[in-house]
């Protein structure tokens, strides 16, 4: 049986009762959550960060012999699949206008398992069926495959490669450092997550192209490192020179009524409903996607709205330590309507109450986390805007 994690072994120690007998987080747990929230909001500096909203990412998964090790239960390959599955879903949730493809490395070669697309279910199902391992990993061959796909991406697209590595070596038929320089010339950012020790060639590959490199301490940490790549990274210097207007179309959806069946997509599949390209009237299965006839990018308005928060994040709320001219008081969380305390605290204590500096509303720590992680807009400010 796997040993229990240290922070979960005595989880009841993170709770305590208030004066009304209700359970709440202990001061120690609240301080840890507050510190974690501050760390996640550290990137906000008061100015908007330029990020790539349309990303084209190749996820390269190492299924060499090293992935058959059982230091992660039940096997490394299975643990890698579950982490990749979670990342794929998070990637499309955070980047609805982007596309992703999967490349697998095994037996000294690299194979394009799935083409660039916006369908998370298709990627997950194909990867689920291709978890057999063997042979050695080849970073050079994987870079060749990725370069061949990403070099045709439009100038407005941000080109990225993310490696999930189980091996401590690479078997390449050519100079891998020359390949790294070649793919850097194509404006491709390479990042990697390793499952064992740090490797020099992997570190050099990421630093040369402006990416990040991390080594997982355990199975859970691997998922955390992967999830960090779901958020669009800041644009690199020089990316502004290639920006241009992007032609997009907002397709209409045909009726799914009986008798309205039509042939859809390149495979001419007979379906009862489809999305109609506004330029050429071709029918596609889903959006966001690229029209298979006129190559117009097809999106829906909610996809644009979901990408907005990366450019203009919610300001960090101010930790309330007391009310001017008063020693203590009680207020109500504007999010969940529970009572929150506003009182004078000593410097070593952590407040569980936050306040939006724009609208002045109070929020509990739970709502503060939820607003910044999922809602991406202050409900108090939204109420003021609708008056």
* C-alpha geometry: globular
The number of domains is 3
Q: What structural category do the secondary elements indicate?
A: alpha/beta
In the CATH hierarchy, what is the superfamily of the largest domain? von Willebrand factor, type A domain
**Low-pLDDT runs:** 1-10
Strand content: 15-25%
* Number of E strands: 21
Within the CATH hierarchy, at the fold level, what is the topology of the largest domain? Rossmann fold
Helix content: 25-40%
How widely separated are the two ends? Answer: 57 Å
Oligomer: single chain
Rounded mean pLDDT score:
81
CATH uppermost class of the largest domain: Alpha Beta
CATH architecture of the largest domain: 3-Layer(aba) Sandwich
Structural summary, described in words:
By secondary structure, the chain is of the alpha/beta class. It folds into three domains: 55-241, von Willebrand factor, type A domain (Rossmann fold, 3-Layer(aba) Sandwich), CATH 3.40.50; 248-311, no CATH class; 313-387, Herpes Virus-1 (2-Layer Sandwich). Helix content is 30%, strand content 22%. It has eleven helices and 21 strands. The strands form seven sheets. Strands 5-4-3-6-7-8 form a six-stranded mixed sheet, sandwiched between helices. Helix 3 packs antiparallel against helix 4 (120-128) and helix 3 packs parallel to helix 8 (219-227). It starts with 5 loop residues before the first helix and ends with a helix. The model is unreliable at 1-10 (pLDDT under 50).
